[in-house]
Amino acid sequence: MASRIEVIRKSVLAKNDRAADENREVLRRRGACMMNLLGGAGCGKTSLLERLLPRLAKDLRVGVLEGDLATTRDAERIAAVGAPVVQLLTEGGCHLTAALVRGGLERLPVDELDLIVVENVGNCVCPTNFDLGEHARLSMLSAAEGDDKPAKYAHLFQTADAVVISKMDLAEAARFNVDRAAQDIRVVNPHAPIFRTSFTLASSFEGLETWLRGCIAAARRPPGDRGANRRVLDPLLA
Amino acid sequence: MHELAIAQALAELAEGEAVRLGATSVLHLRVKVGALRQIEPEMLKDAFDMARAGRLAHSDLEVSLTLPIVRCLHCGAEERLDTFDTRCRACGSTDADVSGGDELELTSMEFESDASPAPGPLDPSGGAGLADRRRDERAAGAQADPSAAGDPGYGIAH
Predict the structure, then answer these.
(1) Domains defined for chain A, CATH in brackets
(2) Which residue of B has its CA nearest to A192?
(3) Inter-chain CB proximity B5 and A129 less than 8 Å
(4) Of A24, A67, A177, B37, which is the most buried if we count CB atoms within 10 A?
(5) What pLDDT score does B120 carry?
(6) What is the CATH number of the domain that holds B137?
(7) Structural domain span for residue B135
(8) What are phi and psi of A72, to 5 degrees?
């Protein structure tokens, strides 16, 4: 029996990447935008949506895919603000996969939606490796978690299209140095806009809302235009 | 422990490749991992030991790390970095383009086989990293050709 060596050169995540490409195609045909919302457990992803969705609902239709290990509690909170929502349970899995999201998209009225938000499983590490077919990736960090997190979980921030620093109303109590956190984010991701939010301050969500509306508009444009929009999407650079 | 999910995906991909190549037993796998992925090579090897089965039961894994290339948009200096810090070493600017360093690729396989079937065509797109793919997709606005990944069970038959 002879042994031989074969060059392969295939992405380890090829199966997930193909499913992500299929999701992108489903969304492209329907002109819908999808945002992947990532961050650690308890950083305020669901709370962010509770603030953001009513603002967008004035003129846009938004659906949500809620990723969790267990329970439908987050889906119930989203349903309470009136958005169509599907709970995706990973049953112990630490991240969402493109295939799981595909199943969720089939249960949402995608034809009627402008935006689909995928709230990933609360985790700063694993979800960053799995493309879901999203147009934009929003990475979150709360002031309560500490200003050292961008340096520790660099991939979360390096792959982000925009970053939210939440719970800014707790910054003083948590001894959170926002300049230090922002500087560490800039080091790994020079271009992503950074938004600071407080659940108790409605106006703190304005910048994020504007950015998200830009993402939705870009997803509706013909594909050929899309590349040029990257910087326009960034309110700090526009 | 994202290494376990990666190891399971690797085992699944390698098993499929082993079947495609007519391998009876895989001896050695080489993977390329970009430093930006924050995957610890030793943990990936341990996780692969747990995930391997079937034709891969006796295979060992070799992990090589690749580093990102950072190009300063201010002064044009290029550097290969082993940290996440993209600040330009020459001029201190934080305005930089990062390329590579996010690879996650099965590069080659050594195996035993009874026969020697002709290998399939190489897949030129399969090795692109996530950031590259996302960037390319945005830049071109084009949809990646799903059939290009070379999975015989997927999409249009060639």
Answers:
(1) 14-229 (3.40.50.300)
(2) B95
(3) yes
(4) A67
(5) 54
(6) 3.30.2320.50
(7) 2-66+102-112+126-143
(8) -110, 20
Rg (CA), chain B: 18
Residue B119 domain-assigned (yes or no): no
Other C-beta atoms lying within 10 Å of the C-beta of residue B121: 7
Residue B118 located in a structural domain: no
- Asked whether the beta carbons of residue A11 and residue B84 sit closer than 8 angstroms, the reply is no
Name the least confident of A65-69, A211-215, B86-90.
Answer: B86-90
Q: How far apart are CA A50 and CA A46, in angstroms?
A: 6
Examine residue B97 and state whether it is found in any structural domain, yes or no.
no
Count up the domains in chain B and report the number: 1
User: How many other C-beta atoms lie within 10 A of the C-beta of residue B61?
Assistant: 23
Residue B124 is predicted with a pLDDT of 46
Residue B108 to residue A8, Cβ atoms within 8 A: yes
What pLDDT score was predicted for residue B150?
Answer: 37
What pLDDT does residue A168 have?
98
Task: Report pLDDT for B83.
Answer: 79
pLDDT confidence bin for A236, thresholds 50/70/90: very low
Q: Please tell me which of the candidates B17, B142, B151 has its beta carbon nearest to residue A8.
A: B17
CB < 8 Å to A126, chain B: 1-2, 5
CA distance A90 to A67: 7
pLDDT per residue over B99-131, tens digit each?
A: 889 999 999 999 999 865 555 555 444 444 444
Say whether pLDDT at B74 is over 80: yes
Cα(A216)–Cα(A80) distance, integer angstroms: 23
In a domain, B158, yes or no: no
